[in-house]
Amino acid sequence: MTRDLQDRADISSLVGEFYRRAFADPLIGRIFTDVAKMDLDHHMPIMCDFWETVLFNAGIYRRNALQVHLALNARHPLRPEHFERWLQLWVGTVDEHFSGEKAELAKLQAERIARSISRRMQGRSGSEFETIGLREPADAP
Questions:
Q1: How far, in Å, CA of 57 to CA of 80, rounded?
Q2: Which residues, in sequence order, are CB contacts of 64 under 8 Å at separation 6+?
Q3: pLDDT tens per residue across all 141 residues of the chain
Q4: Report field, pTM of the whole predicted structure over 0.90
Q5: Which of 60, 118, 119, 129 registers the highest number of CB atoms within 10 A of its CB?
Q6: 3-class secondary structure for the chain?
Q7: What is the distance between the terminal CA atoms of the chain, rounded to a whole angstrom?
Q8: Around Cβ 42, how many Cβ atoms within 10 Å?
């Protein structure tokens, strides 16, 4: 039986396990290791701040996650399948270690974030509610 995410220690455990999986993943691992050259010791507190803010309204993450991904995308195109794999790994890690209201929120927010940033990488709006274009009426000049 797993328990819900309760504090920063749980977030740290979750984020650490997720990145171990992500770094080893055949599809996205090299983006983290070879392209971003991510220093996990440096990155972990930042990601824990992010998820503590998302899940517990801590207000301690003050960076721009989109800018980081835009800069990375300029060096290596981030495609929808990269975000899908990231999301699969995140959800799998959450499900293996935690269950409850905050765990569900972690999965929901991850899906929203992944889809929004993925849309932005494609030059679209980050919103899932994109503007629908209207066709001209048949009798228009």
A1: 28
A2: none
A3: 789 999 999 999 999 999 999 999 999 999 999 999 999 999 999 999 999 999 999 999 999 988 999 999 999 999 999 999 999 999 999 999 999 999 999 999 999 999 999 988 877 645 554 455 555 666 655
A4: no
A5: 118
A6: CCECCCCHHHHHHHHHHHHHHHHHCCCCHHHHHHHCCCCHHHHHHHHHHHHHHHHHCCCCCCCCHHHHHHHHHHHCCCCHHHHHHHHHHHHHHHHHHECCHHHHHHHHHHHHHHHHHHHHHCCCCCCCCCCCCCCCCCCCC
A7: 67
A8: 8
Is residue 2 within 8 Å of 97, Cβ to Cβ? Answer: yes
Sequence letter at residue 139 = D
